[in-house]
Each structure stands twice: as C-alpha cells, then as structure tokens.
Amino acid sequence: MLKMLKYLTKKDWMLVLLSFVFVIGQVYLDLKLPDYMSEITRLVQTPDSQMRDILSAGGNMLLCALGSLSLAFIVGYFAARIASNLSWKLRSSVYDKIESFSLAEINKFSTASLITRSTNDITQVQNIVAMGLQLMIKAPITAVWAISKILGKGIEWTVATGGAIVGLLILISIVMIFAMPRFKKIQKLTDRVNLVTRENLTGIRVVRAYNAEKYQSNKFEEVNNELTKNNLVINRVMGIMQPGMMFIMSGLTLAIYWIGAVLINNADMMDKMDLFSNMIVFSSYAMQVIMSFVMLTMIFIMLPRASVSAKRILEVLETKESIVDGKGNIKETSQTGEIEFRNVSFKYPDSEDSEYILQDISFTAKKGETVAIIGSTGSGKTSLINLIPRFYDVTEGEVLVNGVNVKEYKQKELNNILGYVQQKAALFTGNILSNVAFGDNGKGNYSEEDVISAVEIAQGSEFVEKMPDTYKSAISQGGKNVSGGQKQRLSIARAICRKPQIYIFDDSFSALDYKTDRKLRSVLKKETTDATNLIVAQRIGTIIDADKIIVLEEGQIVGMGTHKELLENCKVYQEIALSQLSKEELASA
C-alpha cells in the first residue's frame, strides 16, 4: 500500500503537510473543550461566581467547536483532493500501461480483471487515502495527547479506561480473525462476476439462440452467491462491532461516573469539587481516547481490502512488457514495402517446448505484390500475420519490414507503415467518419474527402449514403447497428484511408458476398499498385489472382507459388481447391 504514495505529486505532498498542521490544530481545539467544561463546572459550584465568567468560558467552548469544525472541513477537502488526484493518476497510469501490453499480457490478466483493476480496485485505494489522511493522522495524535492530559487525574479512572481499551482490542481482534480473510477474496470474486457478466452480454445472441438463459443465469447466480456470502459475513461481523463499541464506550462512561460517585462520597468537603471537576474532564478525555481507537479500527478494517487492491494495481503497473520499442528512426531503403520472414518459428508464451505454432517459415513479399496465405483451420495463418505488427514476437528467426527487423522499430513507426484489417471487424462508438478516419499515421487528420474515397474503394458507398446522416451516421458500441459485411467494409476502408505501404488482410473478405468480394479486390488492386498486399483467406476465389500463394499445414509451409503451380504440385492446396470448386471451375479459372 505504501508503494502507492510514490504516485503523489509535490502538490499533493504539500496538501498532506497542510492537512497534518490543520489536524494538530483540530485536535488542540477538541481537547481544549473539556478544560473549559471543567472551568464552567467549577464556576457554577463556586459561590459569588460572575455570570460573565461562565459566559466567557461558554463562548470559548463555542469558538473551539466552530474552529474544530472549520478545520475538519478543510482537512476533509484536502483529503478528498489528494485521493481524487491519486485515483486519476493511477487510472491514467493503468490505462497507459494496458495500452502498451501485448496480447500475451492481456491474456495473462484477462479483460474482465483489467477492467476491475482500473475501476473497483482504484476506488478502494481512493477511499482508504481519503479516510486515512483524516483518521490515521488524527487518531494517534488525539490518543497520545488525551492520555497525557488525564495522567495523574485518578488511578481508578485510568484503570477503567485501560480495561475499556483492552475490551476494544479484543473486539477488533475478533473482527480481524473473521472478516479479514473474506476481504481478500472479494476482489477476485468481483473479477469473476465481471467475467461472467461480460461473457453473457457479449454473447447475448448465442445465449438466446440456444435458449441458454437459464444456464447463464445459474453461472451468474453461483458466482454472485459466493460474493454475497462473503459480503454478508463481513457485514454481520461489522454489525456486531458497532454495538460492541457503543457498549464499551457507554460502559466506560458509566464506570467513570460510578467510580467518581464513590470517590466524591468518600472525600472531604474541600476535595469534592475538585474530584467532580476531574471526573467531568476525565470522562471527556477518555471518550476521546476510545474514539481514537475506534477511528484506527475503521482504518484497519478498510486497509486489508485496499491493500489487496493496491497489490493488484501494482501488479499491472510493474508488469514488464514482452514487446518493447526498438531504437527507431528507421530510414527508407530500397526495400520499402517489402516483408520478409527468415526461418521464423513461434510458440505462445508459457507454452511447452513442443507446442510450436509456426516452424521454420521463410518467404518474401515484395513491393506491389499480392501474397496470399491459405490453410486449414489451426494451421497458424493468423499467428503468422500477428508477428508483423508485433502483437507477439517471434520465438526464433526474424521478421523484416522494409529490410529492417521489426524489433528495431518503435511500435508507432511500425504501425504507420501498416494498414491492418483483423479477422473480426472492430468498430468504435462514434460515427462513420470517426471510424474510418481512425487513429494517426503521422500525416495529421484525414479529410472528409479521404474518408469518402476510402469507403468508395471498400464498396461501402452504397449503404453509407442510404443512411440518414450518411458519413456522419452514428455507429453504436461494437458496430451493433450495422451488418457483418458492412462492418467488414468499414474496417477495410479504415486501412485504405491511411494509405499505408503494406496492407494486411486477416481473412477480412469472409463476410462479403462473392460479387462484392471480387469487385472490391479488383478496385483495391488498381488503387494499391505501389503497396504490398498480404491476404489471409479461406476462399480460393479470394486469392486465385495472387502473385504468390503460401500454403500452411500444421504451422509449416507445404507449398508456395501461383494458383496454377500449386494445383500441379501441392496436394494440400489441391484438396482445399477441390473442396470449394469443381474441376471444371478450376480449369476455367
């Protein structure tokens, strides 16, 4: 938890120092009240006392109370400001860190857990800082100062106060034993609730299509019940704690007055007034001591959960990225637009030595060429494509872009060279303009004309111009208000709009009908003559005109050449081709 403090700024530390000063002032005023109360008690019982003296002492009490209230407001404001600034800094740092993660780190934590850490966990830390700055500073100062005030005012009362503190510590120990282990489980259970909820909402169409509402409801109920049980245990323990504390405080007050009554009854007439005054003062100071322990108890109860949250946040912030930037500043070479794989082998992080997804892959895609990759499901096509933009790094060998190892690029520089269209089209909340003119390729913002041209090339003009606001028509979260084919075309338009040196299409034409697919590829070929096209596809028709086709089988290249060459000498390609087209169709093609 202390590691969180390094994220406080100099301004925050100044506010902490000011809070410390104001808390001391607040404690001084709070502890001055019993002195004036004692003076009023003495004046009331002293013959010939002047009313103005009593009113003066009462006025001083009122000023102390108002002063303490004002300082409490100021300290509360400072604490809230510091806690809010810290949570803002942590949230920004966690978001930036997650943005820098490769797919390996994302998969390690899971999306649901990262969301919880970015929201709920940071809120827990914010709460403990807001309360801690007020209570953790005030409670010890109040306790020490109040104890120093009551020392020597009566051994009997001191023993009674000590007994109350022991009782309070026993109560706190019971809470720690039963509640603390539950606090540590809650954050992980919150992760699981978020995971199940996210899965259900993401796959709601599948859930309904298979009448699986009851099944999903049971899954949610299971994790929700477990979270509820843990919260109930904690709340029951806390429910016992509050009346227990009130019982101890009321019992201490009763003990002080009972002891005081006995002492006053047995004292001489001259000592009765002093004893009575001391009893009033001692009672007030003893309550301050007990309240200090109560405040510390509240912090100790919140601290374990906040500590777990802090560890989870730090786990994200202190994770070392597996993909790091190279030196960058790569100059253009004669190999501009070229991609080369040199003896590349790849396995996913933390997998066994034998589990290679790709083995000894070598090929070159030169500027202006269209290179297609085909193979059965699970042959490693997408894994191969993911190595170019460095979603993962190669295990062995090299991937070169423009004749330079991708590891030598800064990731931003590398991304500016590529136009990437993933297998599952991803759209963002906004409109068509904001989705097509998405991001930056170092050339500044895109004009509306650039967007219109890109959408036209991607064969999307027809449906976009029929929408109510055409290019300013709203796109809902995930593009739920457009069809799969429309989403795919907008994703392709996004890549075209940035005019990259290299296009990467990861099975990006699968959602298109044959007519649109053929027309799009025909227009795209004319518009991207100076760019390299790398296409992953399942359909023979999509790649039949490619300059080079690479056939993958179980992570290895089993064939490479043109469509005609592969039909003659690659058995795997022949099987794929014949499963989709007849011999007559292949012959005519």
List the topology elements.
Elements: H1 10-45, H2 51-100, H3 103-109, H4 111-150, H5 155-202, H6 204-209, H7 213-266, H8 269-317, E1 339-346, E2 358-365, E3 370-375, H9 381-386, E4 396-401, E5 404-405, H10 411-417, E6 418-421, E7 430-431, H11 432-436, H12 448-457, H13 461-464, E8 474-475, H14 484-497, E9 502-506, H15 514-527, E10 532-536, H16 540-543, E11 548-553, E12 556-561, H17 563-569, H18 571-580, H19 583-588
Parallel strand pairs: 3-10, 3-11, 6-9, 9-10
Antiparallel strand pairs: 1-2, 1-4, 4-5, 7-8, 11-12
Helix pairs in contact: 1-2, 1-4, 1-8, 2-4, 4-5, 4-8, 5-7, 5-8, 7-8, 12-14, 17-18
Number of distinct beta strands: 12
Main sheet summary: 6 strands, mixed
How large, in whole angstroms, is the Cα Rg?
A: 36 Å
The strand order across the widest sheet is 6-9-10-3-11-12
Tell me what portion of residues adopts beta-strand conformation: 5-15%
**Mean pLDDT metric:** 80
Fraction of helical residues: 55-70%
Which CATH class of the largest domain is shown? Mainly Alpha
Morphology call: elongated
What tags apply to this protein structure?
Rossmann fold; 589 residues; ATP hydrolysis activity; membrane; single chain; 2 domains; ABC transporter transmembrane region fold; 19 helices; 64% helix; six-stranded mixed beta sheet; alpha/beta; four-stranded antiparallel beta sheet
